[in-house]
Fold:
Amino acid sequence: MKKLLLTGALLVPALAFAAEEGGGPLEINVGLQVWVILTFVVMMGLLAKLAFKPIGEALERRGSTIKAQLDEAEKSRAESKKALEDYQKQLAEARAEAGKIIEESRQLGEKVRKEVVDKANSEASAIVTRAQEEISRQKEKGIQEMKDTIAALSVQIAGKVIEKEVNEATHKALVESLIKDLAKVRK
Structure:
């Protein structure tokens, strides 16, 4: 304000000098200068009383509004930062949960695979055991049939031997006949 008054005080004489007509540069009209200074002081007083206060209040309100907006923007930024941190935390939890689910699925798959392999192995063992038992029964059955056949042939041979007197040629013919009969039984 002081600067404005000082500037006005220096400007008024220059304006008064320029407004004079016909006077030289060194002539000064003191009455005009007094009125100009008085008018300037009154105008400054009126402006200070009527305009400066409302302008100052308006500037203060504007400053308060800007400060409130800055505070609101800072609050919004803080809320956004918190929301971002919450989102990142939820994302990390979701990733951890997905990893856990994947690991559980992998373990479950491994368990199911092991169960299937164990079941297949036990079924294969059971099939092998049954097959071996069946082979053993068939073998026993075959052996029994051979024994029965050999016994029957032996009885036939014995009957033939008893009927005939056995000499070397007859004995050889009986053995060859027995071998042929055994070969027929095997087929």
Observations:
- Residues 64 and 70 are 10 Å apart (CA to CA).
